Amino acid sequence: MNLDVPGIDTLELEGKRVLIRVDFNVPLRPEEDGRLRISDDTRIRRALPTIQRVLEAGGKPILLTHLGRPKGEVKPELRLDPVALRLAELLGGNVLKVDECSGETARQAIEGAAPSTTVLLENIRFHPGETKGDPELVERLAELGDLFINDAFGTSHRDHASVAGLGRLLPSVAGELLLAELEAFRRVLEDPARPLVAILGGAKVSDKLTVIDNLLDQVDSILVGGGMAYTFLKARGESIGNSLVQDDQLELVRAAEQKAMAKGVKLLLPTDHVVADRFDAEAETRITTEIPDGWMALDIGPQTRAAYCAEIAGAQTVVWNGPMGVFELEPFKAGTEAVGRAVADCPGYCVVGGGDSVAAVEQFELAKSIDHISTGGGASLELLEGRELPGIAALRS
Ligand code: AMP
Question: Which of 58, 64, 122, 377 is at a distance of 20 to 30 A from 155, taking alpha carbons?
Fold first, then answer.
């Protein structure tokens, strides 16, 4: 896997039309007046440094993004108008929102846009060709710009027209956010400060086995929690009651354990649990080292918490993906919270990768103490799997 990509400073931007693929796939909530408002603008904020660099260098930023899953059709509720409003507020400058994302209307709007205006093209996934990586759409998009910047880490694992397609066709570089993401994963995956500890959780072990397999070549220890831990415990012959399990993964899990042993990697599993009589915030709960029949484990127990936190405290590098339990429900959040605090307190370099672990970090208000919080769930998992991301490989072509 190659994480080297050219950055913005390698391009001459003055007077150029600069297509920037951003990830403005923000959550929208209907307000009382029926209008949609953005409930979390983090993704817009994180794209500002790249937009500002282009503006400062005298280039014309033309933004492309997707929002939601319109599946190749125009969906009025997924138009980018609320995004344009918020972007203009954050930039403190002019934003011209265009209701098309290719063709003559878009071309004319870009041409007519006053200097220091940021142009935002309409939701690119209104085009069926976007997710198919349609070369015709790539050509039409490429007509709108002289240069291309990919700053959408969260979609860089997709071979989509406005991500990898444009990267292959136009002179292209990585934006500031994408560079920061790659730098963070480089510190984990290429010659990390040791010990390197990976914390993996979440519901399904099948989603994480390739990650585990790749990380076993790099890490000193892996701490396993969440629903996926119980397939590991079952594979070791322990009783797991009604806990989440993927029986078709037992062989692969055994193979991972064997690889860990052969490599001398410490693979830690929960030794005690918060069990419940049903999957419910009002369920009866107990703390046990053995999971009784009829009960399900929904969080790691206090002994496991202490062991995992001690391992994290001694780490020089940490990568965390996936919660330790059903942290959305009050009785089962302690494991994820404790691990999150240990990561936040760890003096080493810590990366939290995507999805639910980011939600947990935010819920427990730990974000400020973590070195890097990834904006891409799927993309960060693919990097941890050791895979080349199409949107990043395209920047080198
Ligand atoms: P993932 O999308 O694979 O990262 O999984 C995240 C989900 O796993 C969260 O919604 C958690 O509630 C859930 N989860 C974590 N631990 C458990 C568990 N022990 N049993 C069932 N679900 C769990």
Answer: 58
Average per-residue pLDDT for the chain: 96
- What is the fold, at CATH topology level, of the domain defined by 8-177? Rossmann fold (3.40.50)
Count CA atoms closer than 13 A to 323's CA, side-chain side.
24
Q: Which atom of ligand 1 is nearest to the CA of 321?
A: 4
Answer positive or negative: Cα dihedral of 229, 232, 238, 244: positive
C-alpha to C-alpha distance for 165 and 72, rounded to whole angstroms: 17
Q: Which atom of ligand 1 is nearest to the CA of 226?
A: 16
Burial code of 58-93, b = ≥16 C-beta within 10 A, e = fewer?
Answer: ebbbbbbbbbeebeeeeeeebbbebbbebbbeebee
Calculate mean pLDDT across residues 274-287: 98
- Give CA–CA dist 350/315, Å, rounded: 9
Mean pLDDT within 219-242: 98
Given 355, 376, 377, 391, the catalytic residue? 355
The 10s digit of each residue's pLDDT in 299-342 is: 999 999 999 999 999 999 999 999 999 999 999 999 999 999 99
Single-letter residue type at 234: K
Q: Residue 31: pLDDT above 90?
A: no
Contact 333, 323 (CB under 8 A): no
pTM of the model: 0.93
Please calculate the CA angle 188-227-236 and round it to the nearest 5 degrees. Answer: 90
- Ligand 1 center–CA 63 separation, angstroms: 35
The token pair that represents 66 in the structure block: 């997707």
Say which CATH class 192-384 falls into: alpha beta
